[in-house]
Amino acid sequence: MRHPILATAILALFVASAAGAQTLTGEAARKSPQADAFLAYEHSLIGGGLKAAIPYMTPEKLADLKGMAEMFGEAGFNEFLARMRGGAQGEARRKQIMSVAIDDDHAMLEARDDPNTITEQHLDRTREGWKVGMRP
């Protein structure tokens, strides 16, 4: 009798953990809160630099970008921003969003930059809403 109870408990745990995961595609992904956070982050970073993007990223992502800026220097970081400016922005960028995989308080958004390049952006749910974060 012990094994059916254990099997039922394991099955219940599996179902409960799977219930928090979902993947949005197409219009649902493009209109999601995660997409809005991603686009706000990119818009503020491109338009105003690192300080302007702070409200749209986690402290871990901020530390990562600061580290990148220190490693590559101001010229290298500005080149990174120039490459971002050269890509699609606003609604054109929203149209590139293919999917958002959500698992409780973490999400991964995928956007097709061009036929051979896909951006994967991790996001975390915070008290203030969704923010761009780091890979868990």
Q: In words, what does this structure look like?
A:
It is a single chain. With 136 residues, the chain is an alpha+beta fold. It has 5 helices and 5 strands; from the N terminus they run αβααααββββ. It has helices at residues 2-19, 26-30, 33-53, 59-85, 90-95; strands at residues 21-25, 97-103, 106-114, 117-126, 129-132. A 5-stranded antiparallel beta sheet has the order 1-2-3-4-5. α3 crosses α4 (59-85). Residues 6-17 have low confidence and may be disordered.
Topology summary:
Elements: H1 2-19, E1 21-25, H2 26-30, H3 33-53, H4 59-85, H5 90-95, E2 97-103, E3 106-114, E4 117-126, E5 129-132
Antiparallel strand pairs: 1-2, 2-3, 3-4, 4-5
Short synopsis of the structure:
By secondary structure, this protein is an alpha+beta fold. The chain contains five helices and five strands; from the N terminus they run αβααααββββ.
The SSE order reads HEHHHHEEEE
**Could you give the order of strands across the largest sheet?**
1-2-3-4-5
- Beta content comes to 25-35%
Summed over residues and divided by their number, the pLDDT gives a mean of 89
Gross geometry = globular
Distance between the termini: 39 Å
Structural class: alpha+beta
Estimated radius of gyration = 18 Å
How many alpha or pi helices? 5
Helix content: 55-70%
Give the tally of β-strands: 5
- Uncertain segments are 6-17
For the largest beta-sheet, the strand count, sense and barrel status come to: 5 strands, antiparallel
